[in-house]
């Protein structure tokens, strides 16, 4: 999902560009183990972001395994971008916290898998990180030994996710959360700061 910064909203008017939600569910049997992956990317340009709504009062740090997956995904995206002659994306804690909260909400079932609340997340980011463009990729995966690689490879196989990964952004944040059923949710937010 991509949106212009608040000052650009009037010029953009009500134009709304959304890449269709790309969802893939892959299942593969390997020695009695099944792999399932769902991924979704969307972009939005124009329109007014909604006012931020409060998230949890006290943000909690990711678990060590979640943090490790976030950093693995960040490294994979940057390695890919550099291999394509693109600048690497700097990690931003504000962006990561919004991504993390969205993954936690999906894992808890308080929001559906997808991009609900993207405008709220980007409005919250804009309070401390002025930006011109933002985008988001999400994924859900279960029963794999290397979730970060599986998610990254599936994002690259989807044109709408790949567009975000290769986009004109300079900051990113990734949030990972594990659901009680073992599913792992990934959210990556991309930002072009002012």
Provide structural commentary:
- This protein is an alpha+beta fold and 194 residues long.
- Helices cover 35% and strands 23% of the residues.
- Strands 1, 4, 5, 6, 7 and 8 form a 6-stranded mixed sheet that branches.
- The relative contact order is 0.24.
User: What general form does the structure show?
Assistant: globular
* Secondary-structure-derived class: alpha+beta
Rg = 16 Å
Mean residue pLDDT:
76
Distance between the termini: 18 Å
| DSSP, total strands | 8
The sequence of SSEs as H and E is: EHEEEHEHHEHHEE
**Total helical elements:** 6
Question: What share of the residues does DSSP label as strand, in percent?
Answer: 15-25%
Largest sheet: 6 strands, mixed
SSE blueprint and pairings:
Layout lengths: L2 E2 L4 H4 L16 E2 L2 E2 L1 E7 L21 H20 L6 E2 L1 H16 L9 H9 L4 E12 L4 H11 L1 H7 L5 E8 L5 E10 L1
Parallel strand pairs: 5-7
Antiparallel strand pairs: 1-6, 2-3, 4-6, 6-8, 7-8
Helix pairs in contact: 2-5, 3-4
Provide keyphrases for this structure.
two-stranded antiparallel sheet, 194 residues, 6 helices, alpha+beta, 6-stranded mixed β-sheet
Q: Care to give the gist of this entry?
A:
The chain is of the alpha+beta class and 194 residues long.
